[in-house]
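In this supplementary section we document a worked example of the pipeline. Step one takes a protein sequence of length 120 as its only input; no multiple sequence alignment statistics are reported here. Step two produces a three-dimensional model, which step three serialises into structure tokens for compact storage. The input and output of this example are shown verbatim.
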Amino acid sequence: MITLSKSETIKNILHKGKKKVFPDFIVIYRENNLNYPRFAFIVSKKVSKRAVDRNRAKRLLKELVRKYFGLISGKGFDIIFIARKSILSKKLQNLEPEFFNFLKDLNNDSKAINQAYNSL
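The serialised model returned by step three reads:
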């Protein structure tokens, strides 16, 4: 998994990317003309002032990406995940349906996504 680190690249995606809003996180994505996806994870202090909570939110989002990376590995997108406050009370299993809804929008290959979702 390759992460985005340049702030100007992230700002560009935030301003020009497509946005999908879910109850526990927001996803902003844009094509990158590469053959692989790149990711960024943002958790602001508005979510929690405690670094422990913010790090847990990032770990949950990163684990979602790691677990289902095979479904998006061939796609050339820059993807930013922004955590919302409600993510702190969730477990990984509770976030998977939202993540699959995002994957359905991102991918045209819904058969593989439906198979993975049904195997939960």
